[in-house]
Amino acid sequence: MYIIAPIITVVGAVAYHYFIRKIPTSQNPFNAIFVIYCIVVGISLLIYPFINKNVILIKQITNISTNHIYVAISLLLLETGFLLMYRNGWSISTGNLTTSILINLSLLAIGYLYLGDKLSTTNIIGIIICIAGVGMMTFKG
User: Fold this and answer.
1) Which of the 8 DSSP states describes residue 64?
2) Is there a contact between 81 and 99 (Cβ–Cβ < 8 Å)?
3) Quick check: 94 and 137 in contact, CB under 8 A?
4) Residues of the chain where predicted confidence (pLDDT) is lower than 70
5) CB-based contacts of 24, cutoff 8 Å, min separation 6
6) What is the extent of the structural domain holding 131?
7) 63 shares a domain with 83
8) 20 and 80 share a domain?
9) How far apart are alpha carbons 60 and 55 in whole angstroms?
10) Are 139 and 107 members of one domain?
11) Structural domain count, the chain
């Protein structure tokens, strides 16, 4: 699973960005997201019995925490952000790369400030290069 999980993530992310870019601009963004999540719920319910053979769904639902709410809000922000970025002219490569770099820089800061992650000189040089790269990627010249 150590190797399979990133492969699933990459395949899913590539498909996600390709297809989210193709959602018609005439469709309300929140309607599009609502429909997407209804489909996700349906697929999840179909897959659930095969993955969790000895686990009762209702029992699992009662184990939710506030983290589930935070993830839901985060996903809504993520979906809305990408949908609006692509509708407002970002290319599929530049938009994803720019946000990925900024996300990773933010996570690096959170890890350093709140989780005790260490920063080396190499990390700091990498951060500077990333910031310069984002500037170069987004510059239209």
Assistant:
1) -
2) yes
3) yes
4) 141
5) none
6) 90-141
7) yes
8) yes
9) 8
10) yes
11) 2
